Amino acid sequence: MRSEVVVLSVAFGYLALLFLIAAWGDRRAEQGRSLIGSPNVYALSIAVYCTAWTFYGSVGRAAQFGPSFLLIYLGPTLAMLMAPFLIRKMVRIASAQRITSIADFISARYGKSSSLGALVALIALIGITPYIALQLKAITVTHAVLVNYPDAGDLRLANEPFWLDKSFWVALVLAVFIILFGTRHLDASERHEGMVAAIAFESLVKLVAFLSVGIFTVFVLFQGPGDLFARVAATPALASRLGLDAVPGGTTGWVGMLVLAVLAFFSLPRQFQVLVVENVDERHMARASWLFPLYLLAINLFVIPIAMAGLLLMGDADPDRFVLTLPLSASLEGLPLLVFIGGLSAATSMVIVETIALSTMVSNQLIMPLLLRTRRLHRSASGELAGWLLGIRRVAIVLILLMGYLYHALVGDAYSLVTIGLVSFAAACQFAPAMLLGMYWRGAHRRGATLGLIAGTLVWAWTLLIPGFAQSGWLDDAFLELGPFGIDWLRPYALFGLEDWDIYTHSLLWSLSANLGLLVGVSLFSRQSPLEQTQAALFTEALHPNLLETSLWHGQTTRGELRSLLDRYLGTGTTARVFADIEPRERDAEQPATPAQIARAEQALSGALGNASARVLINSVVRGEALDLESILSILDTTSETLEINRRLEQKSSELAQASEELRAANERLRELDRLKDEFVAMVSHELRTPLTSIRAFAEILRDSSDLPDEKRVHFLDVVVKESQRLSRLIEEILDLARLESGRLTLNPQHLDLVALARHSIDAVHHMQADRGVTLEVAIELEKAPVVGDPDRLEQVIINLLDNAGKFASGDDARVRLSLLPHKRHYQLMVEDNGPGIGEEERERVFEKFHQIQDPEQAPDKRHGRPRGSGLGLPISRGIVAHLGGRLWAEKAPNLGGACLIMELPEAPPDTAEPG
Q1: Which of the two ends of the chain, N or C, has the fewest CB atoms closer than 10 A to its terminal CB?
Q2: Which among 768, 820, 824, 808 has a CA at the least distance from the CA of 896?
Q3: Contact 816, 805 (CB under 8 A)
Q4: pTM
Q5: What is the tens place of the pLDDT at every residue in 313-323?
Q6: Helix 417-428 × helix 446-460 angle, to 10°
Q7: Distance, CA of 728 to CA of 340 (rounded, Å)
Q8: Is 677 exposed, middle or buried (0-12, 13-18, 19+ CB in 10 A)?
Q9: Angle at 199 between CA 197 and CA 204, to 5 degrees
């Protein structure tokens, strides 16, 4: 199954599948049904960060240096935490200025400098070529291992001519893929939807492949992680590699590698391509900020187990290949092929995106500025240049891939996969100061950025790139130990005498120090041009509302000149889209172009040719200049002032709305109080009229009936007395309620025993309850319950609770239960009945003035369907209890099933105890 024909068939079949996915993605985009309009696809495309280095090299680094490989992935995780403000700002700038690459981004920031853009493109080409070589090396080596295992594939590979090297043909196939799906349109700022869909698919393939070999290693070759790490612990030489001491360079190595990973994540051309240029919606970053770190966690989950298993079973022989050789050693057929396809997907995805980014930079920043200097270019026919430029970009793609292959063939064997990757990481980090500082410091100057990039790149080349050539045998390596011309302090790995550092941290320190130092130092003593001032303001204030919607031109040209320029460089189709808003009657070649049309034309040129070339071309037809810094700042100030006024208006409007709502609520409350007042007056009048009417009626009978029998006379007088007592009681309750609500109720708080008071209250109502046929149960097990209260008022409350319970107890077997229990430094007196109870919605309303529960069937002592009483007892009782620091509420009776009223009073503090 692992024959040459099968492996090649599967590999090129997989590449053919990528063609189909990319074609499908482009077709969906043309139909308006984009595949990449999903945050999940965006997050998976960012996983192009995980290359063959991740797939094979992380295991090799873990086998040598333990957990140090994690820093390469912790860096991007920390970087994604900054996505909502840093990457979002980069996307906003790129969208507004039609940025096509990281070189275009840096060039645009520093006055659209063509020389600076060319410098960035050249550095990227030199620095990233080893990274492309890394991917091709991984394909070559793993194919040889897969086909020749257990024989040493490297020996056969070293003797093969290039036309038998499979990575050479893979590079050519990828060149065809990139030409078909990466250069279909001249506008490089347009989304490559088919390509991004294919990259997202490849991210899933490499994840599934790596997890498969990880699960096989841990649960098939070993009996789970416990068994594997137990065997590692039993081997001291391996156990020591899992400690933090195994990290090269110690603490400085940790910090240096982490900084390297964070900066490289922002600065690698392929990451800039997928993070910024291919972003279709800023909101996708919200999900990508946690989904991409989750992807990194998943793909690195089995790195250390695979590394340790390889060391246990296969020794130290080339740990970069453990991912493939472990399943091969178990004589498996399918899994090694899946691993090979996973590694192929990791390599090809990086090569595709990196080559698109580099080819755009080469054509826009290196070739195009040279072409603009030739007279023949400006005399070319309409649309002719668009074909030329696409051809240049396609040739650049082939040459970039061939350069990567040459580096792999000449130098690649001197370094491991991880080493090649870190060399490119350190090169990409040189872009970070100019890019990141330029986004936040308006004073950063083009000259400082240029000198900083040159110095940083030279230090990087001396401390990392050139030693690689020396170790491969192309240079005499004596200077590595002795320094050039015997100058000890210029040794590449111990520059200025800084020894015993990790070589990558060492290179990063000196290169970034030179880069950042010159950028800041030169900028402080340099004066910016008006255009650079304008661009600096646009970049630093990129998130300012409405800023980038403002036209930045006040030069003059005609529509005919603009149209002719766009026709020549972009073709008639693009030109028609740029001027689509102009009515046919307005298409007069001599009419002046508006500032918005000039800006739109420059954006269209920027998307195809880069900002620097677009500026040169626009300047060739526009008489005048873009807005200067003062104008930009004026726009900012005006917008800020408008926003501040709007903010204040919104605040005032909010305050008015709040005041209106409060006034409406107050009016509602007043109406409610007025209604309650009317109800209160009506209820008081009714309650007072009832006993008064009865007294008057019986008094008139006694006055007018002199011949009444003595028995009747005594009965009528008894009624008059009872109604008078009722009237007095009602008046006293109304007065008590008035005192409670006005805060003038006089209480006489003193130490008392609630047990004794409860028993005294029971004795007072016992006969009355017996006359009603109510059985009174008492459950008091406490000997004493010391509280502070007014004994008369508390007795009034207890009697009222017992009286209410007796009225509502069930008629056939009427029962009332009083209990007294301690509860969290309080005492709770509970009065229950076995009546119908109180519904949840009524349990608070029973404490409202004059509120009575309508229950004519259950109330034994009723008149006109209502239990006799004023409806003031419970409100007064709650007020008294509250004044004494307690609570009174209703709930369902736990024992008798009816209503339960609970009075809770705090336990008397010790210093108020009665004297002994």
Answers
A1: C
A2: 808
A3: yes
A4: 0.65
A5: 888 777 888 89
A6: 160
A7: 101
A8: exposed
A9: 100
